[in-house]
Design brief:
The protein has 260 residues and is mainly alpha-helical. The chain has 9 helices and 2 strands. The site of one protoporphyrin IX containing FE has 21 residues, from α1, α4, α7 and α8.
């Protein structure tokens, strides 16, 4: 009997035993489209931005006036910048109209519970303690808060980027940012800020991709594929708890509204 068993059985991963899972639609299509457009735009912005900051000496026998490599690199940076910017604006809007997992409440720590959950996640994910982690249906509190910082940084990248672009562009929109270089003490300082902040996005990506894989592996709830199809597999008890929380919050809101 034992010989016919596959190598990885429930015995190997007791966490899988007797789990009743429910398929929950967590990330709506607009959130998924935002995610992948944003990820792609940032990779392109980091690569082209890095090249702008550290231009390689490209050796070529061609006549200089026939070359436009740097023009192309800068064009790609600016095109990706527009995609990044409008996608970001769209996500801000979706934080007001999207489902409960997409809303701004998930990103901003305003309650005691939010801070408590952040601490629990920290104990498991960073200190690797073996206690039972709070398993949330959407983003966990720590992830939500880091995404909040991520969105703030995105805003700063847009302001510094368009600030640099204002004097290079003929369109009215970037010119709206013409006041930015003055605020930072000139183009040179502004460029250095814009450059240094790129490293936040590189660090974020490394930690983010690691943690997403870690959660996918440890929890076995389809974490990675949830950003593809939108669905996660949630334990029934956990799902019911999440439902109760939502109802409680909605009742609280109604009470507050009635009070006013
Ligand atoms: C995550 C987003 C972004 C990253 C990682 C990024 C990265 C960079 C880096 C590393 C540089 C080189 C700075 C240096 O000279 O050392 C740069 C230049 C620049 N970036 Fe960005 N950038 C981003 C978003 C934007 C946005 C939204 C705009 C808006 C138009 C923008 C416009 C510019 C401009 C105008 C330059 C100067 C180009 C030049 O002088 O040739 N960037 N970027
Ligand atoms: C292989 C690459 C990637 C995978 C598999 C991936 C997967 C995921 C997953 C599963 C989530 C939801 C996790 C949660 O609940 O906390 C998520 C959220 C997020 N990821 Fe990624 N990601 C990748 C790359 C990136 C990159 C390169 C960026 C940007 C630099 C990024 C930015 C974000 C942001 C901002 C969110 C929050 C989404 C929202 O609520 O709007 N991801 N990602």
């Amino acid at each position: 009997m034992n010989q016919t068993r596959p190598k990885y059985t429930n015995k190997t991963y007791p966490v899988m035993l007797g789990r009743k899972l429910r398929r929950v639609y967590v990330w709506e299509l607009p959130v998924r489209v935002f995610h992948w457009l944003n990820a792609l735009a940032i990779v392109v912005l980091c690569v082209t931005g890095y090249l702008i900051g550290n231009p390689p000496a490209i050796m070529s026998g061609n006549e200089a006036s026939e070359q436009y490599i740097f023009g192309t690199i800068r064009f790609i940076h600016f095109a990706a910048a527009y995609v990044f910017f409008f996608n970001f604006l769209f996500r801000i809007y979706w934080g007001f109209v999207g489902n409960k997992y997409a809303r701004w409440r998930n990103f901003i720590p305003t309650t005691r519970r939010y801070w408590k959950e952040m601490w629990e996640v920290m104990k498991v994910d960073i200190f690797l303690e073996r206690c039972r982690e709070h398993v949330s249906v959407g983003h966990n509190a720590m992830a939500g808060f880091i995404y909040f910082i991520f969105f703030l940084m995105s805003g700063i990248m847009v302001i510094t980027g368009f600030g640099l672009y204002a004097s290079m562009s003929t369109w009215w929109f970037p010119k709206l940012f013409a006041w930015v270089p003055g605020l930072f003490g000139g183009d040179f300082v502004l460029r250095n800020w814009h450059h240094a902040l790129m490293w936040f996005f590189i660090l974020f990506t490394i930690v983010h991709v690691y943690l997403v894989m870690y959660h996918d592996y440890v929890e076995g709830r389809g974490e990675i594929s949830s950003m593809g199809g939108g669905w996660k597999f949630i334990e029934e008890a956990q799902f019911q708890e999440d439902l109760r929380d939502t109802e409680e919050q909605e009742q609280k809101k109604k009470k507050e509204a009635a009070h006013h």
